[in-house]
Amino acid sequence: MIYYLALSICFRLSFVSFEIPYEAFGIEIATEYDERTRLRTISRVGSIIGNFAAYVMPLWVLDFFAQDPIKGWHTVGCIIGGVCFVSWFLFFDRFRKTALEYGGTKKESFLQHLAQLQADSEAKTDQIIDRL
User: Fold this and answer.
1) In this prediction, what percent of the chain has a pLDDT beyond 90?
2) Is residue 3 pLDDT above 60, yes or no?
3) Which one of 13, 30, 102, 127 is CB 3.0 to 4.6 Å from 35, fit for a cystine?
């Protein structure tokens, strides 16, 4: 009983530490109602597709490699790794193009650009507080 309680508390804390910033980030990115709706719609559709792929795709691959389950799991790992790498690369490439559109330079590193975005966000927050 204590084991279940301890693991449940650890899971809830871990989940909340991810979910709250994830949901709040959409509000930070999109300030208008329609933008937030579009952003959340894309996010939810991606989540549904990702969950479907994560639950169903391994079963399909394992059925295909029914004679050798170790090879099947190896293939599942390679597919998931490839999808993760491609999605990460596309995000990074899109983020760099967006940074260049907003006046960034190619010499600017990814972390420097994130720091600049954070500083701009803090400045906007200060302006809103001053108005109140």
Assistant:
1) 12
2) yes
3) 30
Q: Are 65 and 75 in contact (CB under 8 A)?
A: yes
What is the per-residue burial (b if ≥16 Cβ within 10 Å, else e) of 17-35? eeeeeeeeeeeeeeeeeee
The pLDDT-based confidence of 74 (bands split at 50, 70, 90) is very high
Q: What token pair was written down for 8?
A: 């449940």
Which position has the token pair 């293939």?
75
Amino acid type, 74: H
Report the distance separating Cα 27 and Cα 62, nearest Å: 40
State the Cα–Cα distance between residues 121 and 31, nearest whole angstrom: 12
- Residue 102 main-chain phi, psi, to 5 deg: -95, 25
What would the two tokens of residue 7 be?
Answer: 């693991």
What tokens does 115 get?
Answer: 């720091």
The pair of structure tokens assigned to 23 is 């949901």
